[in-house]
Structures are given as structure tokens and as C-alpha cells.
Amino acid sequence: MLVLGHGAGGDVDAPDLEAVTAAVVPFGVTVARVTQPYRVAGRRAPAPAGHLDEAWVDVVRSLAPAGPLVLGGRSSGARVACRTAAELGAVGVVALAFPTHPPGKPERLRVDELPLDRPTLVVNGDRDPFGVPPVVGMVQLHVVPGADHSLKKAVEPVAGFVLSFLRANGWAT
């Protein structure tokens, strides 16, 4: 099962999340796209990180995946997936448009949120104002030329990277 979360201002219908879903389902991967409670309540601004993580953990546990669990998401959802991977026993992480730092604040790095102890796929655009993370731990990094934080112009390559990552690790047929 691949569980995907959305970005801070977006929803689960983001083009990259939809493309990933369409690409991996035919290969035996069950996908659950999770909407955070603040969005369900109609708010645009995300809750504090601790609240996001708590809600995510509750939802993922309620899904009770039978096989290997891969967590993922885009932007803020990628950060949540990374921070909760160990607690939820995820075998891997998919981080799309991982926000390495807030825009214009490269000194406030978030690289310590990337898991070091499990396969992690990071896909970022080279024009992302949130930066591109370095390769650390077991991170496999793909930087898409010409793509920004939305990855809207790169949905096909993004979906291909995710499918290849899942297949290489034996989590997709």
C-alpha cells in the first residue's frame, strides 16, 4: 500500500499525486490519498507539524495495510510521511517536491526530516524555490529540469520515477 498526503495549500487531487496513482495501481499497488483534517474542516493553513503527524498516524493505522507500507506525499505531505515513517513501520518513503527550506530561507534546512534508515525517493524540480535536498542516508534523488515546486509540468516523469522505485524494491509487480 502506498499512502499519499497533499501539500499545505493543496489537496489529494494534485496533478502529481493523481499521476502517481494512475501509474502504480495497474502494477498491484493499492493507493490511499489522505486529506488532512484541517483541509476537511475547510481551512487553508496547515495545523502545526505535531498535529499533522498525529492525524496522519491515526489515519494510516486505521487503514491497516496487509502488506508492505510505503508512505509518501508532496511538499508538506512529504515531510509528514518522512517524520512518521519509523513510527508506522514504513518500508519506504516517496517524497515529491520535498521542501528543503522555506522560500528565501536556505539557512532553515529540513533535511533532518528525511529518513536515513529506509529507501526514500525524492523528486524535486530544479526551479523549486524550496530547494533541492542533498542525498543522505538511503535517499534516491531525481531532479527534474525546468520543473518548479508544483511539478505540474513533470507529472509523467514523476509517476515513472515512483513506479520504478516501487518495482526496484519489490513493492510493485
UniProtKB/TrEMBL annotation:
An annotated Gene Ontology molecular function: hydrolase activity
Pfam families documented for this protein: Abhydrolase_11 (PF20408)
**Mind listing the UniProt keywords for this protein, alphabetically?**
Hydrolase
Q: Which residues form the KANL3/Tex30 alpha/beta hydrolase-like domain?
A: 2-153
According to the lineage, what is the superkingdom? Answer: Bacteria
Please identify the protein, giving its name as recorded: Alpha/beta hydrolase
Q: Which organism encodes this protein?
A: Cryptosporangium japonicum
